[in-house]
Structures are given as structure tokens and as C-alpha cells.
Amino acid sequence: MSSTLPKAFDMQGLRVLITGAAGGIGSETAKLCSQLGATTVLTDVASSLERMAMQASALPGIEAVEPLDIADRRAVETLVASHAPFDALIDTAAICPFDEDWMQPEWDDKFHRVMKVNVLGPINLVRAVMPGMIKRKQGSIALCGSIAGWMGGLLAAPHYAASKGSVHALVRWFAQRATPHHVRVNAVAPGPIATGMTDGQPYNKDNYPMKRMGDPQEIANALVFLSSPAASFIAGSVMDVNGGVLMR
Ligand SMILES: NC(=O)c1ccc[n+]([C@@H]2O[C@H](COP(=O)([O-])OP(=O)(O)OC[C@H]3O[C@@H](n4cnc5c(N)ncnc54)[C@H](O)[C@@H]3O)[C@@H](O)[C@H]2O)c1
After folding, report:
1. Distance CA 207, CA 173 (A)
2. Is the C-beta atom of 22 inside 6 A of ligand 1?
3. What is the chain's pLDDT, residue by residue, as a tens digit (248 residues)?
4. Are 142 and 226 in contact (CB under 8 A)?
5. Catalytic residue among 160, 203, 208, 225
6. 160 is a catalytic site residue
């Protein structure tokens, strides 16, 4: 397949770590990386391992399918050490509890969990992969922000909006340090996408310019583009992929 594609989009020979690979966007990202010739290490929480392994069974280029909680710094470091080197990290792991009752005393615990997964998670991952990339003077990192990180969310609760705003800020912090070493750090900020994360929530498609939610593949396309040689001059950017729901 890759021989018919422009070389710039080719992932042949690239080793890619994907988190949240059992999820809607993560599984489409894994599929596309495989189709474009990458070798991938697919990870997700232990409870999703079976689903991830099943989804991956038909894909070429899978080096490993492993459990990984990105909030666990030591687990992240161990996994990265055992499969390094990586040319790319694509982090799609996150949680989005739709519990807006932030006045409740127990809500603070949920806040800390969301921040631990959605903010400390990417920090753990970047902390583990970036030094090796910098040493080899090549690499790319693509994170998942969100429309919620820009405008507070369509339905999202405040902890999620805060966590995704943090991811947007972290992209710049990471990129300032990585770009001079030829390592590119970027993110995609999706709008409402039809995945397990949004399933059953009252998103009103009629309010959106395209009258539909996005398909997870449409986010995978952007994440894989940012990780490919085609994006060689893109660094420190947060790319909006939201069907025009928010035009900044
Ligand atoms: N779906 C949307 O509308 C939307 C909008 C904006 C941003 N996003 C972002 O896109 C990314 C992918 O979301 P999705 O829609 O595919 O959701 P999803 O729920 O389908 O997938 C998320 C995956 O992350 C995994 N995960 C959760 N906690 C984890 C942890 N601690 N360690 C490792 N993996 C963990 C889950 O098991 C799941 O497989 C997320 O970062 C999400 O915040 C999604």
C-alpha cells in the first residue's frame, strides 16, 4: 500500500507507541499507522487488553499489545525502556467523567483522578520518550487536546476542560524544549467525536455546522499526519479538527 502513497505520509520503518489504543480514536490510529507501514506498540488499561488484542489481531506491524496505565509513572518508564527506541508517541488515552456536580465534596477526588490521567499521564509519557528522541535528534509526539480546552466544552465537566487546556499549554512547554533537537511536539483538539467517550451523552448534532459528530478516523488522520514526515515543519501546534464547531 505504501508504494502508492506520497512518501511524505509514509510511516514505513517508524516505531510508534500508541496509548488508549483500545479506544475509539486510539484503535483507528493504530489501524492507520499499521496500514502506512509503522511498527506499533499498542497500550491501554489492563481491563481493555482483550478488546485491544482482538482489534489488533488482523493488523500488520504490531510489535506488542500491553497493559499500561499512563498515570503510573513507573509503569510508563518500564514499558518505554522495554520497547525503545520510539520514533513517535501518539497519546489518545484519557477519561471524561460527565459529572458536573462540582459542589459535591467528593467531586474533588474525581478532579484529582482526571488530572492524574489527562495531565500527569502525558507528562509521564513525554518524560519517558523525549530524552531518547532528543538524543537521536528525531521524533514526533502527538497528544490529544480538545475543543473543551479552548472554550470550556460542549457538555464536558470542569475537570476535563481544565485538563485539556493543560494539554494545550504543555504542548508549547514540551515543544519549546524539544524543537531545537528536531523533535516535534503537537496535539489535535477534536470537536465532538462519536466514540465510547461520548456515547449516550446528549450532543445535539443539529447545532453543529456539518450536522454530525466526527468520526474517530477523522481524528486518527490528523494524529497520524502530525506524526508523519509530511508534518516535518509543524511544531508546537494544536490542530483544531472539529467540523467547524469552533472557529478560532
Ligand atoms: N470523543 C470526543 O468527542 C473527544 C473530543 C475531544 C477530545 N477527545 C480526546 O481524544 C482522545 C481519545 O478519546 P476517545 O474519544 O477515543 O475516547 P475512548 O474512551 O474511546 O478512548 C480512550 C481510551 O483511553 C483509555 N484510558 C483511560 N484511562 C487510561 C489510563 N489511565 N491509562 C491508559 N489508557 C487509559 C481507555 O481505556 C480508552 O480505551 C482522548 O484524549 C479524549 O480526551 C475526544
Report:
1. 34
2. yes
3. 445 556 899 999 999 999 999 999 999 999 999 999 999 999 999 999 999 999 999 999 999 999 999 999 999 999 999 999 999 999 999 999 998 789 999 999 999 999 999 999 999 999 999 999 999 999 999 999 999 999 999 999 999 999 999 999 999 999 999 999 999 999 999 999 999 999 999 999 999 999 999 999 999 999 999 999 999 999 999 999 999 999 99
4. yes
5. 160
6. yes
156: Cβ below 6 Å to ligand 1?
no
Angle between helices 24-35 and 49-56 in degrees, nearest 10? 30
Cα dihedral: 147, 151, 157, 159 (round 10): 90
Q: Which CATH number fits domain 2-241: 3.40.50.720, 3.10.270.10, 3.50.50.60, 3.40.50.150?
A: 3.40.50.720
Which residue bears the cell 525503545? Answer: 84
Domain boundaries, the chain: 2-241
How close is the Cα of 4 to the center of ligand 1, in Å?
32
Q: Strand (E) positions, the chain? A: 15-19, 39-44, 62-67, 88-91, 139-144, 183-190, 238-241
